[in-house]
Structure formats: structure tokens, C-alpha cells
Design a protein that fits this description.
Blueprint lengths: L4 E3 L2 E4 L4 E6 L10 E6 L7 E6 L5 E3 L7 E5 L5 E6 L8 E6 L1 E3 L2 E2 L7 E6 L1
Parallel strand pairs: 2-12
Antiparallel strand pairs: 1-3, 3-8, 4-5, 4-9, 5-6, 7-8, 9-12, 10-11
Length: about 120
């Protein structure tokens, strides 16, 4: 098993936008649901912010609904997270993974990508 590789994070002012990308080169035979998670501080519980199914159905946490958009990439088991109208409270390390259910994911966690939103 290989982790997802996330990219696209950075420092942005409040109200700005970022687009995150992730891909897993190890999942080549099946297409799985993919979700973006974030951890806002070390030791704090991670939050699942967006999910996309193999058929393209999406779901968002209330904290990002209307501002973030998840989409699938061209590569199998890849995804994007378009983040608009960013707020300082969106500051976090963002991770990508393939949820199975019950909090279980298919891949080991990667390093994530840091998003910092300044006020």
C-alpha cells in the first residue's frame, strides 16, 4: 500500500483561493471514493471536509459547504479540492484518503499539505 500524495497547499490571505491535488499511484485496478480531511492542530481530531464517490456524488462538512468543491482528477484515484473564500479557521494540514466506512481508510496517511490562511 502506498499513501496518497497531496500538493497545492500554501499561504493565502483570507478570502483567497487554493486548489489542492492528490493522487494514489498504488490504486490502479479499482476506482474508490476519495475524501479530503484536515487536522487543524497537532493532537486534534481530524475532520473529513469533502467526499466524492466513484460516480461523482459529493458530500461536504457544514464548515466548508458552499466554499469548497471536490472533483475527481483524470488519473485513477486522484482528486482535487478547490477552496474559495478561505478563512483563518481553514488553516490546517490537509490529507487525502479513500474511506471505507467507520473511520477506516484504505491507504496509509501521507504527510499532507499545509494550508495557512492569514487574516
Amino acid at each position: 500500500q502506498v499513501p496518497f500524495v497531496e500538493s497545492g497547499g500554501g499561504l493565502v490571505q483570507a478570502g483567497g483561493s487554493l486548489r489542492l491535488s492528490c493522487v494514489n499511484s498504488g490504486f490502479t485496478s479499482e476506482v474508490f471514493a476519495i475524501a479530503w480531511y484536515r487536522r487543524q492542530a497537532p493532537g486534534k481530531e481530524s475532520e473529513r471536509v469533502a467526499t466524492i464517490t466513484p460516480s461523482g456524488d459529493t458530500d461536504y462538512s457544514d464548515s466548508v459547504k458552499g466554499r469548497f468543491t471536490i472533483s475527481r482528477g483524470d488519473a485513477r484515484n486522484s482528486a482535487y479540492l478547490q477552496m474559495n473564500s478561505l478563512k483563518p479557521e481553514d488553516t490546517a494540514v490537509y490529507y487525502c484518503n479513500a474511506p471505507v466506512g467507520g473511520g477506516i481508510v484504505r491507504a496509509p496517511w501521507g504527510p499532507g499539505t499545509q494550508v495557512t490562511v492569514s487574516s
